[in-house]
Design a protein that fits this description.
Strand content of chain A: 15-25%
CATH superfamily of chain A: MTH777-like
Shape of chain B: globular
Helix content of chain B: 10-25%
Radius of gyration of chain A: 14 Å
CATH architecture of chain A: 3-Layer(aba) Sandwich
Distance between the termini of chain A: 13 Å
Number of helices of chain B: 3
Number of domains of chain B: 1
Structural class of chain B: alpha+beta
Order of helices and strands of chain A: EHEHEHEHEHEH
Largest interface: A-B, 26 and 19 residues
CATH class of chain A: Alpha Beta
Helix content of chain A: 40-55%
Radius of gyration of chain B: 12 Å
Strand order of the largest sheet of chain B: 1-7-6-5-2
Number of helices of chain A: 6
Number of domains of chain A: 1
Distance between the termini of chain B: 28 Å
Strand order of the largest sheet of chain A: 3-2-1-4-5-6
Largest sheet of chain B: 5 strands, antiparallel
Number of strands of chain A: 6
Oligomer: heterodimer
CATH topology of chain A: Rossmann fold
Shape of chain A: globular
Structural class of chain A: alpha/beta
Strand content of chain B: 35-45%
């Protein structure tokens, strides 16, 4: 979970269909690093490519890996994290967040966005912190909520 | 996806929710087993919120396969040794 007492966070990126996902993920990477928490990204191929193209100098991106490989590692007790942020805009996102809540010891944050954010949020029936904002193209509603979340995340360390 | 796709699974439900897949197995597959999220079958993990089920129908397995972009597919494939592994669980 922690390496040399360094706190770690996993960002789980699903389908990047909704525009705010990539910019919010980069913003969260920055915020976590600023607070001394080492972030790791796990995502689909397309989600990772969007991140790589958006941050070619790797100013924010550190370790990045395949989503299924990460689930392999966590279920196999190879590694775990202190915090886990799951980006959600569809039913699959809910399914992945529920899985993380079950297999990981991390505090799970369900970051729900997109046109149907409120409906999706109402489907959460497992232990996690729900952070929902109806954000599709404009990231500001989710950015405000993320700032609150990062305060919680740090204060709970 | 590798292995599972190479098996050319029969698709029972397409782009469904993990809850719809759960309900289908519970209602339509008499022999079914509850597994934990992350349970690995062939080369894929069962993704979702408990309870999650895998069904056995003859020599076939029926289980949900969740893709991040396309929702959950309920697939049916020859079970092989995975059926014995499933039945051996307590």
């Amino acid at each position: 979970m922690t390496e040399n007492d360094e706190k770690t966070a996993l960002l789980l990126l699903g389908c990047p269909q909704v525009p705010v996902q990539t910019s919010m993920a980069l913003y969260l990477l920055h915020g976590l690093s600023q607070r001394g928490i080492r972030p790791v990204v796990a995502g689909t191929t397309a989600a990772r490519k969007l991140m790589e193209v958006a941050d070619p100098g790797r100013h924010y991106l550190g370790e990045m890996t395949d989503i299924d490989g990460m689930i392999d590692d966590i279920t196999g007790n190879v590694r775990d994290f202190d915090l886990c942020f799951v980006f959600i805009h569809n039913d699959s996102g809910i399914a992945y967040a529920g899985t993380m809540s079950y297999i990981s010891k991390a505090q799970v944050y369900a970051l729900i966005f997109g046109e149907h954010a409120e409906e999706l949020a109402s489907e959460i029936e497992f232990p996690c912190e729900v952070v929902a904002a109806k954000a599709v193209h404009n990231p500001m509603p989710l950015k405000r909520r993320l700032e609150e979340v990062m305060q919680w995340a740090v204060s709970k360390q | 996806m590798g292995c599972l796709e190479a098996m050319k699974p029969e698709i029972i439900l397409s782009q469904a929710s993990f809850k719809e897949a759960r309900e289908y197995i519970k209602k339509n597959v008499r022999e079914h087993y509850e597994v934990e999220p992350g349970y690995k079958i062939f080369d894929v993990h069962i993704i979702g919120v408990p309870p999650l089920y895998i069904g056995v129908e003859g020599d076939d397995l029926i289980f949900p396969y969740t893709k991040p972009c396309h929702g959950t597919f309920l697939v049916k494939v020859p079970g092989g040794e995975e059926i014995a592994r499933l039945r051996a669980r307590k």
